[in-house]
Amino acid sequence: MVCKFCPKIKRFDIFFIIIVCLAVYGVDKYQSYKKEKEHIREFEKLQKDCLFGDNKACKKVYGK
Description:
2 helices; about 60 residues; mainly alpha; rod-shaped
């Protein structure tokens, strides 16, 4: 029995869905890379502050 209410999927629809999925994946990867880069910069700043004698920064970095 064929579903008469379901529209038929065309090739263009499949290509459109694939393009949208790739675009969303690309944006997600870009945003996660940007966020990771920001965390690395913050961690490096904490390490530098610890190196210059800030005890609070040392506790945050190394948990001591």
